[in-house]
Amino acid sequence: MNNLKMAALAFAILSLSVMAEEKSAEGKAADEIAKYREMIADGNPAEFDEMRGAEIWKTSAGPKQANLELCNLGKGPGVVKGVYAELPRYFPDTKRVQDLESRLLTCMSSLQGFTEKEIADKAIGNVNRKPAIEALVAYVVGQSKGMPMAVSTRHPKEKEAYEIGRRIFFYRAGPYDFSCATCHGQSNRRIRMQDLPNFTLKKETQLAYTTWPAYRVSQGLFRSFQWRINDCFRQQRFPEPQYASEATVDLTMFLAVNSNGANYDGPGLKR
Amino acid sequence: MGGPMKIRASIKDGVTEVKVLMQHEMETGLRKDDAGKLVPAWIITEVKALHKGRTILEGQFGTAVSKNPYLVFHFKGAAKGEKVTVIWVDNRGDTRSDEAEIS
């Protein structure tokens, strides 16, 4: 009898210590990741893309041989400081809500004479090809670092974009019957080692949204928000969205508005 | 010539911390391009850091070092306002030298 009790007690102690060990191992991994983030915080190669983008911004290009210094990103022609914290927004000249990349397409076509299609078709880069528009994104978002997100829904079109974006977020489709919310609707979930932010919570949305666009260490490339959405659609097995299309802008609008109040902290650095 | 490095150097309690972000492809020579051909190796082979003409760090890099390498090191014996120079050489014979003031 005594022996049995002892054995039960020993088992209880053993399982407790195993549990404690498992927990600390998980905590340790998170700590190590945090340590890694801290170590590389000053070594974000996105800075090189920002530098390249700043150069491209003022360099003449395209059939009209013009630079982008007259480009209106929402705060007047040529203003770059702080614009990203207020995008997407409604633009009266195009009569639609545009995110940064959609607006850059507008500028590159109206000012420089490119067609939007020729830029959009090659807007997402790879190891061999680094599109100008990606560097421009890095440059522009870097100019909003530290500024509070303040995306408006005052204009009816902005309100509509937010609402459509919200619906797209919860819309289940495709061969796996996935919605964005399937992966991004619960806390403490991950894909392999990558934590998945829960976009139904303001805090997690803010943390994720304000650290994109970002340099992806595993790919050795700077990635824009259009790329981020494009790749989410791919993982959902949705048809590939058109670059800077209305659906992608509306979804961005949904996430951007839900991040309002947080300080923008990009370009980020991701695994 | 390669693109510029980002160098930050700051001194605290007599120890200078230098953070260097280099701009380099660091092709390992093992990757294949879209046509299936090997992309030739293109890597930084040597890194050197100088302070007032004195070599404070010397190292050899290889294919295991990532693209756009980031290097942090500490040394003693410098003062605010002095300069730290970092130089790299790659296997194509290209070289780049940048300097930063210690803050």
Write the layout of secondary structure elements.
The complex is a heterodimer of chains A (271) and B (103).
Chain A: H1 2-40, H2 46-57, E1 89-91, E2 96-98, H3 100-110, H4 116-120, H5 132-142, H6 156-170, H7 180-184, E3 189-191, E4 194-196, H8 202-209, E5 214-216, E6 221-223, H9 225-235, H10 246-258, E7 268-270
Parallel strand pairs in A: 5-7
Antiparallel strand pairs in A: 1-2, 3-4, 5-6
Helix pairs in contact in A: 2-5, 6-10, 9-10
Chain B: E1 6-12, E2 15-21, E3 44-51, E4 54-60, E5 70-76, E6 83-90, E7 95-101
Antiparallel strand pairs in B: 1-2, 2-5, 3-4, 3-6, 6-7
Question: Please, could you describe this protein's structure?
Answer:
The complex is a heterodimer of chains A (about 270) and B (about 100). Chain A has about 270 residues and is mostly helical. Chain A folds into two domains: about 1-40; about 45-270, Cytochrome Bc1 Complex, Chain D, domain 2 (Orthogonal Bundle). Chain A contains ten helices and seven strands. Chain B has one domain (about 5-100): Immunoglobulins (Immunoglobulin-like, Sandwich), CATH 2.60.40. Chain B contains no helices and seven strands. A four-stranded antiparallel sheet of chain B has the order 4-3-6-7, with no helix packed on it. The two termini of chain B are about 30 Å apart.
